[in-house]
Amino acid sequence: MRFALLAVLGASLGYASLKYGGVLSSDWRLSGGLIGAGALCWSLRPREFLTPARDRLVPASLFALLTLAAAQLPPLPLDLLRILSPNRAALTASLAPLASPHTAPLSVLPAATLDHLFRIAAYVLVFVLAGWLARSFKERPFLVVLPIVLVASAEAALGLIQVYGAGPGGFARGTFPNRNHFAGMLAMTLPFLLAWALACLRRRKSRFHSPAAPAFAASVLLSLATVLLVAVVHSLSRMGFLAALFGLAIAGTAAFSGGARRRWKLWVPVAAVAVSVVAFALLPTGALIARFGDLAATEDISADTRAQIWRDTFSLIRAYPLFGCGLGAYESALLQFKTAAPMFTVDYAHNDYLQIIAELGLPAALLLALIAGRLLIGTAAALRREDSNCLAAGCLGALAAILLHSFVDFNLYIPANALLLSWIAGISSSFDTRLP
Questions:
Q1: Looking at the chain, which terminus has fewer C-beta neighbours within 10 angstroms, N or C?
Q2: Distances (CA, A) of 91 to 105, 108, 157, 169, 358
Q3: Residue 262's pLDDT is what?
Q4: Spatial separation of the C-alpha atoms in residues 356 and 131, rounded to whole Å
Q5: What's this model's pTM, rounded to 2 decimal places?
């Protein structure tokens, strides 16, 4: 059962990645269908297979989040709408010369909200299933990330083929339409490869087993990590490169601190910072250095335009503070406040945090912050346990990488990357944080 479920989730992630990150609803449907089928089969298993999560706070918060998102869809009387979302009510009232609506939903674009609500439901299912798989693979903890490693390795290999096959000026993006989202997936995977290699080297030595096997496994994993890091460098994604180094530094610090003697614990983060600085100085290619030298521009928008989009987004948040403008309704709702790039469509805020607040409102954003904080604290606590130290370190590094990258990009609105984050968060929810 568990191996079949792991394969189904891996197929869902792989297909979403293959189809340009799953950004088109028509491409995402198969991945979502696979997740739903896997969840249905899992729920029909005997009760002994349905091991409950130890932490009730995160599941309750996720249910509350889904409820708040679903509350954006039902039509509400205008009098109630004026109380809950005055700006939405004003928009509805402005249609009076053309029609006389007596009800309207909180969402500015209900069709898009419904589509995104189904996506979030799929991510929650992945969170639950990944948590159960992590608990069921306690004897071989890194098996739960094997599909992630395989998909990311295939993307990295394709990216390097694109670079070395395209000649001068080529860059890696795999099957993603945007290099930054390609780098985002690899940055979330890199910490697991480092942590897995360390776990192999830490296996208890026995005179009945050769030490060559763990060393060979670690060398293979570190070689894969090198391939992924080189692919990130050749993606020419500045924040992707920084996020990858940050995630590796966090994972390395967490893993080494867990196994180090007390007198060495202080020097582990210092060494991680030093290695990261050296890597930042030596690894970038000439093309990536040139992109760092031109910080005022990106491949799509200038830094000034990005800042202006953020200011417009703040205006949108002030207009819809409690319940947001609706999941997926950012582009439509922003038109009322849009001053940036007047000749172009602005469909993303290029900052996941701002866009989530704009679409879901402040209460839902606080719920998400509560979930993220609880998972980070629980995963950090799991570092104290020898049986989960390395996997917890990988999760911390992956979460740190995407949290940093999301400040200047919209990785969480790319289904493949959001699915991957849900998978990692599910693993983080599985740790027993009680001291042995």
A1: C
A2: 11, 9, 49, 47, 16
A3: 56
A4: 24
A5: 0.92
Query: What tokens appear for 426 in the block?
Result: 């599910």
From CA 435, how far away is CA 433, in angstroms rounded?
6
**How distant is the alpha carbon of residue 283 from its chain centre?**
25
| CA–CA distance, 419 with 426 (Å, rounded to integer) | 10
Q: Are 35 and 12 in contact (CB under 8 A)?
A: yes
Using DSSP, state whether 151 is helix, strand or coil.
Answer: helix
Tokens 């693993």 found at: 427
Q: Which of 313, 311, 327, 316 is nearest to 91 (CA)?
A: 316
pLDDT attached to residue 44? 77
So what's the pLDDT on residue 316?
96
Nearest to 221 by CA among 322, 291, 152, 309: 152
Residues 6+ apart with CB under 8 A from 160: 172, 227, 230, 231, 234
As a dihedral over the C-alpha atoms of residue 340, residue 342, residue 348, residue 349, rounded to 10 degrees, the angle is 10
pLDDT computed for residue 284 by the predictor: 84
Separation between Cα atoms, residue 157 and residue 231, nearest integer Å: 8
CA 296 to mean position of chain CA atoms? 26
User: What SS3 class is residue 335?
Assistant: coil
Domain spans of the chain, in order of start: 2-72+107-300+347-428
| Rg for the chain, CA atoms, rounded | 23
Residues in the chain: 436
**Exposed (0-12), middle (13-18) or buried (19+): which is 27, by Cβ within 10 Å?**
middle
Burial of residue 11 (number of CB atoms within 10 Å: 0-12, 13-18, 19+): middle
- CA 274 to CA 281: how far, in whole Å? 11
Q: What's the pLDDT score for residue 50?
A: 46
Regions in the chain scoring below 50 on pLDDT: 48-51, 296, 435-436
Which pLDDT belongs to residue 53?
52
Residue with tokens 């897995």: 196
